[in-house]
């Protein structure tokens, strides 16, 4: 019996080699799609953002979905000398339909008027921490939270959005609403 084992092993090896070679010849030669192909196409997806305030050419601009606030400002010619970038999160990812507002420094003139309306109400989307601190029930810590939230999520769509900030409930919002506006 051992005499036949060796030729059988050789014959089995040859049969496997022939099967493998045949499979390679008849294998479908379609080009493989890289796993990250979908990611590359979404990187080039365009979105629209509105850049306003202390920039050279404010306006609506088309940007790639993966770009940041800093790049949108650069497309608009950069900032003006009176720009206050301390309250702008330049690293924030862009979102379709977002507004990027670059405020002016208070010492540049005109900014205080933009933080406060003619009726004395405080603009929650443009006011700095010091001005927000003047709102009823808002202290320095809460004012900082408001600015941080605004920098991270973009401008508030209504005064009621302040309830998204930790520490501002309906009761505090009722007091703030009397002195705040967009």
Q: What does the model show?
A:
With 182 residues, this protein is an alpha/beta fold. It folds into two domains: 37-106, Ubiquitin-like (UB roll), CATH 3.10.20.600; 116-182, Photosystem II 12 kDa extrinsic protein (DNA polymerase, domain 1, Orthogonal Bundle), CATH 1.10.150. Helices cover 38% and strands 12% of the residues. It contains seven helices and five strands, in the order ααββαβαβαααβ. It has helices at 2-26, 37-43, 69-75, 111-115, 129-132, 140-153, 170-177; strands spanning 46-53, 59-64, 99-102, 122-123, 180-181. The chain has a three-stranded mixed sheet, with helices on one face. The longest helix is centred in the N-terminal third of the chain and has 25 residues, at 2-26. It is elongated, with a radius of gyration of 31 Å. The termini are far apart.
Number of strands: 5
**What is the C-alpha radius of gyration, as a whole number of Å?**
31 Å
Low-pLDDT sequence parts: none
Terminal-residue CA separation: 95 Å
CATH class of the largest domain: Alpha Beta
What would you say the CATH architecture of the largest domain is?
A: Roll
Q: Output the strand order for the largest sheet.
A: 2-1-3
Residue share in helix: 25-40%
Shape: elongated
Number of helices: 7
How would you characterize the largest beta sheet? 3 strands, mixed
Gist of the model:
Helices cover 38% and strands 12% of the residues. The chain is α/β, with parallel strands linked by helices. It folds into 2 domains: 37-106, Ubiquitin-like (UB roll) (Roll); 116-182, Orthogonal Bundle (DNA polymerase, domain 1).
């Amino acid at each position: 019996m051992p005499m036949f084992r060796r030729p059988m092993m050789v014959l089995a090896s040859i049969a496997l080699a022939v099967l493998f070679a045949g499979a390679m010849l008849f294998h479908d030669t379609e080009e493989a799609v890289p796993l990250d192909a979908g990611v590359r196409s979404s990187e080039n997806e365009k979105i629209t953002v509105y850049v306003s305030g202390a920039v050279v050419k404010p306006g609506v601009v088309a940007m790639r979905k993966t770009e940041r606030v800093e790049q949108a400002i650069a497309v608009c010619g950069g900032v003006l000398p009176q720009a206050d970038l301390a309250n702008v999160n330049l690293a924030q990812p862009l979102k379709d339909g977002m507004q990027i507002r670059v405020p002016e420094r208070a010492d540049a003139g005109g900014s205080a008027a933009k933080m406060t309306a003619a009726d004395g109400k405080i603009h929650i989307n443009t006011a700095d921490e010091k001005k927000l601190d003047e709102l009823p029930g808002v202290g320095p810590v809460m004012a900082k939270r408001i600015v941080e939230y605004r920098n991270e999520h973009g401008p508030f769509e209504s005064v009621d959005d302040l309830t998204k900030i930790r520490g501002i409930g309906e009761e505090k919002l009722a007091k703030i609403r009397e002195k705040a506006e967009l």
